[in-house]
Amino acid sequence: METGSIIMMLVSVTALWGGLAWAILRLRRHPERHDDE
Q: Which residues have CB under 8 Å from 1's CB, separation 6+?
């Protein structure tokens, strides 16, 4: 693989897993509230 494709792969993997980790941490700190009416 070329250097550019490796860099783009690392950026996309970092964005994917970083976003997932951020969402999990955010939900642990501020759990969603379910207002049943």
A: 9
Alpha helices in the chain (DSSP H): 3-29
pTM of the model: 0.59
For residue 9, what are the contacts with CB-CB under 8 A and spacing of at least 6?
1
Alpha carbon distance 32, 22 (integer Å): 15
**Interval 8-25: pLDDT, tens:** 999 999 999 999 999 999
Instruction: Look at phi and psi of residue 31 and say left if phi exceeds 0, alpha if psi is from -120 to 50, else beta.
Output: beta
